[in-house]
Write a structure and sequence with these properties.
This protein is mostly beta strands and about 260 residues long. About 10% of the residues lie in helices and about 50% in strands.
Length: about 260
């Protein structure tokens, strides 16, 4: 059978288009990493999210080495946490669930893009080799303010990543002559031991304490403050550990001024 040259050309062009369409569909389903929900992440009762161990305090958890987990809760119209920070050269597994309706968890500039369905937990593992800043968007229409649903993922250099937390308990007022105490609690979220120094500055007094914290543990440090040396008045105090800082004010009053005493 003799096929005209133009017919051959159209036949070849048609085959190229068909192959191109198949390749495009295949890439769209596999290449960008778009994922539907599977059984890997498990299921969860949307009404009991706060009681679930993974989602009671959403955020970053260090598993050891360069491995981390991040728990995220989606709800109209935000993510919790809204900003996530992980170190470069890390392997991060995300667990994402919804409190209300179907959302998506899409990290712009990466292949992270999954549906987030109430009752299900989406699971994705990604390696971040280089520092960078990425936006997080919802690509599933979820209501009136869908367009405002966004978050941020910061991948920082390893030497800048820190999971240390500082909290301070201090009285607001004490009578002159009484000794009072300012207590600083340092927590280390990493599965590695931490050696650091906690310092307190109040008036012209400066105190320092060395602390050793086991992996994923915490330690409290008490700073006795001599109010007789301070004298009456308002004194700003600052507690620091590494790059973390907490501040407040202690009022030292006379006994005749109606102070409440040591707190």
């Amino acid at each position: 059978m003799n096929i005209h040259t133009y017919e051959k050309a159209w036949l070849v062009a048609s085959m190229v288009l068909i192959v191109g369409f198949i390749a495009t569909i295949t890439y769209g389903a596999v290449g960008p990493g778009i994922a539907m929900i599977d059984d890997d992440g498990g299921s969860i009762d949307p009404a009991q999210i706060n009681d679930d161990e993974r989602f009671s305090e959403p955020g970053v958890t260090h598993l050891g080495g360069n491995r981390y987990e991040v728990a995220v809760v989606a709800q109209a119209w935000s993510y919790t946490p809204s900003e996530i920070e992980v170190p470069a050269n890390s392997e991060v597994t995300f667990y994402v669930t919804s409190r209300d309706v179907t959302h998506s968890f899409t990290v712009v500039g990466t292949n992270m893009n999954t549906m987030v369905v109430p009752g299900q937990v989406s699971q994705m593992t990604v390696k971040f080799d280089e520092p960078g800043e990425y936006g997080i968007l919802c690509n599933e229409y979820c209501g009136e303010f869908h367009h405002t649903m966004e978050g941020k993922l910061n991948v920082v250099p390893e030497n800048e990543f820190d999971m240390t937390e500082l909290s301070v308990e201090a009285p607001e007022q004490v009578q002159a002559g009484n000794e009072t105490t300012i207590t600083a609690t340092v927590s280390d979220g990493k599965q590695t031991d931490l050696e650091t120094t906690v310092s307190l500055e109040i008036g012209e007094q400066t105190y320092e304490r060395d602390v050793s914290i086991s992996g994923a543990g915490s330690e409290s440090v008490e700073f006795p403050v001599d109010t007789a040396e301070l004298g009456t008045g308002d004194y700003d105090w600052t507690v620091t550990v590494d790059s973390h800082e907490e501040t407040g004010t202690l009022t030292v009053s006379n006994e005749t001024s109606g102070g409440d005493g040591d707190a």
